[in-house]
Records
---
Amino acid sequence: MSKRFYITTAIDYVNGQPHLGHAYEKIIADVISRARRSLGQEVFFLTGLDEHGQKVQQAALAEKKNPQEYCDALAVDWQNFAKKLELTNDDFVRTTQPRHKEFVQATLSKLNDAGQFYKASYTGYYSAKEETFLTEKDRLPDGKFDASYGEVVELKEDNYYFKLGAHQQWLIDYIEANPDFISPSYRRNEVLGFLKNNTLEDLCISRPLARLNWGIPLPFDKEFVTYVWFDALVNYTSVAAAHGDEIILSANKNLQPSTSNLQPSLWPADIHVIGKDIVKFHAVYWPIMLKAMGLPLPKQILVHGFWQKDGARISKSTGNVVDPIAIINEWGVDAFRFYVLRELDIGPDGNWTEAGFRSRYQAELGNGLGNLVNRSLSMLKRYRNGIVPAKSNELAADAAKAADETRALFQQSQLQSALQSIWCLVNRANKYVDETAPFKLAKDPAQAQRLDEVLYNLAESCRVLAVLLNPFLPGTSAKIYSQLGLTGSPDKLADATWGGLQPGQSIGEPAPLFPRKDV
Ligand code: MSP
């Protein structure tokens, strides 16, 4: 059975409202999903929420709510947020769902039966804020722990550990043999450097009930709940199992084999999109967990950078935040989607400024794309009564170049570069208007045929742009199609081939795509 292109995002802690960083990651995954669908692939896009663990328990406690009720209330906001961003996710996982909890327990049982865990007592310095024990290596030169760990206390406790050390060399070899496994390459080099210079300590996969009860109980010892990261990472497989994925179901005899599986399989994931702060979990722990589970590894871990605002860390406590919902309400979702992907390539860190956002809105969306479409279609309406003239190929090569580059860049998830290629066509077509001056041609009856050529090239460029832009700006791209009088949907990259617009066809009503906002 064929396999779907399976892409995931990190699942967000549901301990507050979504911010710019969360939005950015989800938009990356959505654009890749839409791009792959446009390329003709079947896609399964998963996002969702990480609801267990200390962070969420503490947040619930602070509001005097029971954690489940707290999560249920916030999950509504987060799901609405996914809609607001116009994500085309195929499922939305919440780690408190029974389908996930049961799968985590089945996985734990399997690994425990296979002798992957052992119980041991440990005394160490514990950061509740980061939910982690710290070692001597974590101390600053002055002997203290970094303030980011919050209060650090000495703690002795029994726990279950997952044996990692035995897999260290295997993982190094795997990463070296698979250069695309961790992208960009500097993140891959960091992981390799870490693995080569440190001995992996075993991973503590439990938390004693006495310290934390908001988690999935260990199936083999009711005195413990599952460590939140073990629980969270497993979402990528629990949801695939819920959709009947054969590879996952047959790897675990504790799971019910599916009886009615008619869907193409999912596992292994093609891309896990994550931020740079959680690389170790995805590129070290997760591969080893999968190996122990008898499952193949994801094809790629795609790591994006962090957004700052006005050069400082985004932080609720200092009020230095960007509220994506407010931006979208004011400027439209497409402007927001465009800005984050055009401004920041997948990898480095970025900086949000109001001025930067406005400037790209005005220059690239308003004066660039919006103006091109509006003047092209308005002139076609005015000079030719909205009837598409005979075909002409003057901009065909420019359009083909943009389409070819976009196709190749989509296959490599190079979204910022794809936008740059697409804007080469926007700029070329705008320059073409200036060069050919159709408003002058229209005054001279002897130039009627030349005007026809120019108007066809412009309208057809707009159509091609709608197709290329569809993954990024779905609403805008649909508007361009309808202003062109086209009924279909611009969602197949194959339709970017020059000459799709048929002579004799009537266009619709031109209307500004990105209204000016300079008052
Ligand atoms: N719950 C874990 C992930 C579990 S995945 C199995 C988590 N949650 S989080 O809410 O803290 O972060 C979710 C995602 O948002 C992460 O990929 C993180 O890197 C990303 N971002 C959080 N703040 C960010 C910025 N300021 N900028 C860009 N992305 C950021 O970690």
---
Amino acid sequence: MKFFIDTANLSDIKEAQELGVLDGVTTNPSLMAKEGITGHDNIINHYKAICAIVDGDVSAEVISTDFEGMVKEGEALAALDEKIVVKIPMIKDGVKALKYFSNKGIKTNCTLVFSAGQALLAAKAGATYVSPFIGRLDDVSTDGMDLIDKIRLIYDNYGYQTEILAASVRHPMHIIQCAEIGADVMTGPLSAITALLKHPLTDIGLEKFLADYAKGNK
Ligand code: E4P
């Protein structure tokens, strides 16, 4: 399973990249705003800065909600760097834009997906990635993982090449469950990724090994 980091924070992206397990980055307008990145030129420069750090796909989201606007914005974003994946919302004009970019060989990430039907449409339109939002479904008492399961089944039934990018991941159990089901990619915060390495028995064991070494090597 590929690991993407879901942030626009350059220091978190650097840390994940240096850990050696990072396969890409996803951003969205809220994550950009959280880092204080506003205004067209600053946002474009921030995408360039992210692309300079990471070896892998970098999702950059369009703001337009009409087909022509999404095509114009998406083409400009894709021209910034070959790592850029144009992130498009799951709305009617978004489906048309996914098909347009697929025909042109430009990579896309269909975002704000909350149902199996939406994921099926995204695959038929040729999306490179589909982003079901697990955490936001959990937030409304609906098991986000059931959706990943359903999409995996549907895509496998027909051999769709669209990759399932489990998004809105909040904690390490989300990552483990995604890997069990067979999501192609997960995107989450640095805290969820680094939480995977924690186990108290590892800490206790290491402390004992080092203490025993110290005793024998005074
Ligand atoms: C996905 O691409 C989104 O940016 C993201 O995963 C949303 O996560 P949130 O629900 O934690 O905001």
